[in-house]
Write a structure and sequence with these properties.
The protein is built from five helices and two strands; from the N terminus they run ααβαβαα. It is an alpha+beta fold. It has a two-stranded parallel sheet. Strand 1, helix 3 and strand 2 form a beta-alpha-beta unit. It is globular and about 45 Å long.
Length: about 90
């Protein structure tokens, strides 16, 4: 909050929108969110964005992963998930 309040005082930049609003506005563009299984807030936030976006967001929660640790924890599954998502998104 302090960061945004200070930015409002020092610049003419507008307040950024929420990730959920941005994901909804991106529809029908598909979005893959990868969340850390060991970080409850991450999966909760991802599910919130998924629910708000109206169907264009897919969430994969990586079991046993810390923040940005999905590729390290499950490299094969990470690759399969991302490649499958991208193939589907490109083929539409």
């Amino acid at each position: 909050w302090v960061q945004y309040a200070l930015t409002d005082l020092l610049t003419s930049a507008s307040k950024p929108g929420s990730l959920a609003d941005a994901a909804a506005a991106a529809s029908p563009t598909p979005i893959l969110m990868i969340a850390a299984g060991n970080v409850t807030d991450e999966s909760n936030a991802a599910r919130h964005v998924e629910a708000a976006a109206g169907g264009n967001v897919s969430v994969w929660v990586v079991p046993g992963a810390d923040h940005i640790g999905g590729l390290t924890v499950l490299p094969g599954e990470w690759e399969d998930t991302v490649i499958t998502f991208l193939d589907s998104a490109i083929d539409g």
